[in-house]
TrEMBL record:
Xref: Pfam families: Condensation (PF00668)
Name of the protein this chain belongs to: Condensation domain-containing protein
InterPro entries from the UniProt entry: CAT-like_dom_sf, Condensation_dom
Species of the source: Microbispora tritici
PANTHER family xref list: ENZYME, PUTATIVE (JCVI)-RELATED, PTHR45398
Residues of the Condensation domain: 5-400
Amino acid sequence: HITGAATVRGPLDRDVLRTALADTARRHESLRTTLREENEELVQVVSAEPVADLEEVTASDWAAVLDEEASRPLDLAAGPLMRTVLVRVSDEEHVLLLSLHHLICDGWSLDLLLREITGHYARLAEGPAGNEAPSPASVQFADVELWERPVTDEDMDFWREHLAGAQTLDLPTDRPRPPYQTHRGDAVPLSLPAATVAAVARATGASTFSVVATALGVLLAKLSGQDDVTIGFAASGRTRPELTDVIGMLVTTLPLRMRPAPETTLRDLLRATHDAALATQQHQHVGFDRLINECVRERDLSRSPLFQVMLSINGTPPQYEFPGLAVDPVPVHPRASQFELSVHLEQSVEGLGGFLTYNTDLFDARSACLLAERLTVVVEALAADPGARVVDLDVRTAGEKT
């Protein structure tokens, strides 16, 4: 599931917040959805009335509560698939935690959800004038299927060519790989030099994503000794204006293939990565499941299919406003790893930071920290000497060289 949290400082009205949650769930069918099995098939069941409980906990150590809540499972059949917990730190400080199953929510939706809850709270806080129940959202999650682009032969030809002969990334690990892929994980902080990334992007006409993806591809190539690297990244899936405000799981995962051959310069690799990222997004409506079925000949149960490393970069975190209250987003420390490694970054006025999530059955925290530091080394090399060849690049940190 996906989690989000925010600190709320000031005189919070919990009854108003509870009503704001119910109004939000009333507007969006996805927040009233559960799943049940009928004739060996999963069926979505949308409740007519919202079930938006607000669980309240008192704890001075709210970080421990977030940790526990972020890993607490959700019951798909009984529901609801959204759980809201309010941690009371003091009369003037609370932490609001939202936990939703990924079947009904993605990162974009989580932002929409927090904005809508705060908007309803502001309306209700005005008194009787704001008590009128809001109308349902004009586009519901179930409507999305009506606008799905058909998958063409051209789409599948693109993906078959993009992934033809792609190598499986084989990184050195701290422990032997288990016979079956596991998802036990942890995370270490990651911070990249935002000004350096921005300078490279301006100088080359590339995006921030392409700069970081190129650096990550080079690092993985140097560590694995391979010159064919595929990573995953998330595309919003909101390819039409009507889908902008839909709460649901619209995001899709795409494989991005890079070929950091030894003689390739960093500049040329960055250009190729940028072009490949744009091309893959043109065909993002092909579902990930279909890509696996069409492009994976044999499944290796010890690894995720198509790629083993994920990269996601979010824009500047939004600001949420409760009247008379100060609201600030809180990063939730990942405790599971869908892939061997995942780089999660967020752009903000402070910089480009986030987490490097790693599978704890494969890597130690020390190795994860070293990977994070080495990624910075490659980013700085892209800026300092874009004409350098991959084969000549030393990804070791200054501490490793002494």
